[in-house]
């Protein structure tokens, strides 16, 4: 069983035909009203009969409140990644954290070249996409000017920003080995389509993604599996995939969750009737079936709490009082950095309680005005928390890539402590992701604020314990050792 236990999302795949522009808005609103989770829009900028995908996504986001959007998938050769990063972040801000980013390495090269884009070989297209992902993530990460010198893309001191209020997932459309391996190494999601990757071929493709992720030191479960699908609803079962009554569809999609970890199903509906059947009959049946199986196979989990202090390596240390004032200042700089993180964590908790108080006020005041205020409060908290998550991640990245190697080289006995600290960074990264997911849920459902509080408590317990352990073990060696830190 390969169910990675991601939340199940069901969506609609819309064709941005210019001649049918007005029905697209109606279809998006129908998808949201029917309870679907996401809308994907194909991106072929060289196609003159299509609307521009980003313009359409912006209009649809403005006409909806809860449903997510993603380009399915963005044509990278005609969308420079630095500009694409800013466009995606801008729409995520304006929509309240409802954007994911599907990207592709390119296809239909005659059309790309006709629009002034590059005509790349398969190897060049894969390399360019990998560079593009690095460029986009650099511009979504707070810090100083970003620089990158690649074969296909460059940044020369570009200022990062704007910063999306939630972590935008980079989902890669991939079928061939090199693209599948890239997906496993770097992407947040994989986007195949049943027309080009039927269920019988998913096992081999999934294995390549999973193996590449493992080789890169990543958990394959971190990669969302997004499946674009099409089919036919009928009274009697047919012979092909998704050909028959809704119950058959639910059975086949449930199997894909269990066998390959698929968790996002995006249907290209033949008409609005198909969209409603998919949302109102198929999606609930799949959720119910997967939920039953997950409950049956769930392993007992310990309640959230601090990281296990009893297993942490400890080293003998000198008393800081024996060191010079300059040495003590050098060591205690780490505590000052950590105090900033503690203060920010306290600020998040205070903001969360302010939102909770605002929610209670909603019951006493007029509905529409209060909901507007509540959404603004949620967006502000989400932006604040997302920024904090990036700050913690950046702090840990600096430690992993510079501080820790320097300390390990200067004092070999520190290796077990540093190894443990790096393991805890991974644990905290996972908790940050859980908090981010809870914030996205809260943006769409005000009653989900209790889930945010639980995830914040979970993060705070682990992070505060980790910071204290790091100070206990590293302040003295940082102070004592004459290092360029």
Summarize the structure in words.
By secondary structure, this protein is an alpha/beta fold. It folds into two domains: about 10-295, TIM Barrel (Alpha-Beta Barrel), CATH 3.20.20.30; about 315-480, Up-down Bundle (Four Helix Bundle (Hemerythrin (Met), subunit A)). The protein has 13 helices and 13 strands. The strands form three sheets. A nine-stranded parallel beta sheet has the order 3-2-1-13-10-9-8-5-4, with helices on one face. Strands 6-7 form a two-stranded antiparallel sheet. A hairpin with a 4-residue loop joins strand 6 and strand 7. Helix 8 (about 245-260) crosses helix 9, helix 10 (about 325-360) runs antiparallel to helix 13 (about 450-480) and helix 12 packs antiparallel against helix 13. It is globular, with a radius of gyration of 24 Å. The relative contact order is 0.10. The model is unreliable at about 360-380 (pLDDT under 50).
Shape: globular
- Widest sheet, order of strands: 3-2-1-13-10-9-8-5-4
CATH fold-type name of the largest domain: TIM Barrel
Uncertain stretches: 359-381
Series of secondary-structure elements, N-terminal to C-terminal = EHEHEEHEHHEEEHEHEEEHEHHHHH
Distance between the termini: 46 Å
CATH superfamily label of the largest domain: Luciferase-like domain
Helix content: 55-70%
Strand content bin: 5-15%
Largest sheet: 9 strands, parallel
Tell me which CATH architecture of the largest domain applies here: Alpha-Beta Barrel
CATH class of the largest domain, named Alpha Beta
Alpha plus pi helix count: 13
């Amino acid at each position: 069983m390969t169910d990675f236990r991601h939340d199940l999302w069901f969506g609609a795949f819309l064709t941005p035909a210019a001649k049918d522009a007005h029905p697209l808005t109606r279809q998006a609103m129908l998808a949201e009203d029917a309870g679907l989770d996401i809308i994907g829009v194909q991106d072929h900028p060289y196609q003159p009969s299509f609307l521009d995908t980003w313009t359409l996504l912006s209009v649809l986001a403005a006409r909806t409140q809860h449903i997510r959007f993603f380009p399915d998938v963005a044509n990278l050769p005609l969308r420079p990644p630095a500009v694409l990063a800013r466009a995606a972040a801008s729409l995520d801000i304006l929509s309240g954290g409802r954007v994911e980013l599907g990207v592709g390495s390119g296809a239909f090269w005659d059309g790309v070249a006709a629009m002034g884009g590059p005509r790349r070989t398969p190897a060049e297209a894969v390399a360019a996409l990998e560079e593009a992902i690095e460029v986009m993530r650099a511009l979504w990460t707070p810090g100083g000017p970003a620089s990158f010198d690649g074969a296909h893309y460059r940044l020369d001191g570009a200022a990062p920003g704007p910063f999306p209020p939630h972590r935008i997932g980079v989902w890669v459309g991939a079928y061939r080995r090199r693209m599948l391996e890239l997906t496993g190494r770097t992407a947040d999601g994989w986007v195949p389509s049943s027309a080009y990757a039927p269920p019988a071929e998913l096992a081999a493709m999934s294995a390549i993604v999973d193996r590449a992720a493992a080789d890169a030191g990543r958990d394959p479960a971190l990669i969302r599996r997004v499946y674009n699908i099409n089919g036919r609803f009928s009274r009697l079962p047919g012979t092909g995939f998704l050909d028959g009554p809704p119950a058959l569809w639910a059975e086949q999609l449930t199997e894909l969750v269990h066998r390959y970890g698929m968790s996002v199903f995006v249907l290209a509906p033949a008409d609005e009737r198909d969209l409603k059947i998919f949302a109102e009959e198929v999606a609930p049946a799949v959720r119910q079936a997967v939920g039953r199986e997950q409950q049956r196979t769930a392993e007992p989990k310990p309640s959230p709490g601090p990281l296990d202090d009893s297993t942490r390596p400890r080293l003998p240390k000198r008393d800081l009082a024996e060191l010079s004032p300059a040495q003590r200042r050098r060591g205690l700089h780490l505590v000052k950095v950590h105090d900033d993180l503690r203060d920010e964590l306290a600020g998040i908790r205070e903001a969360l309680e302010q939102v909770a108080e605002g929610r209670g006020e909603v019951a006493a005041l007029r509905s529409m005005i209060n909901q507007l205020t509540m959404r603004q409060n949620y967006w502000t908290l989400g932006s604040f928390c997302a920024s904090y998550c990036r700050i913690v991640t950046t702090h840990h990245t600096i430690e992993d890539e510079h501080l820790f190697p320097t300390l390990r080289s200067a004092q070999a006995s520190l290796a077990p402590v540093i190894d443990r600290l790096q393991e805890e960074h991974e644990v905290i990264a996972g908790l940050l992701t859980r908090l981010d997911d809870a914030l996205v849920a809260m943006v769409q459902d005000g009653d989900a604020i209790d889930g945010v509080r639980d995830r914040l408590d979970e993060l705070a317990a682990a992070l505060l314990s980790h910071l204290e352990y790091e100070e206990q073990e590293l302040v003295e060696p940082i102070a004592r050792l004459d290092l360029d830190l």
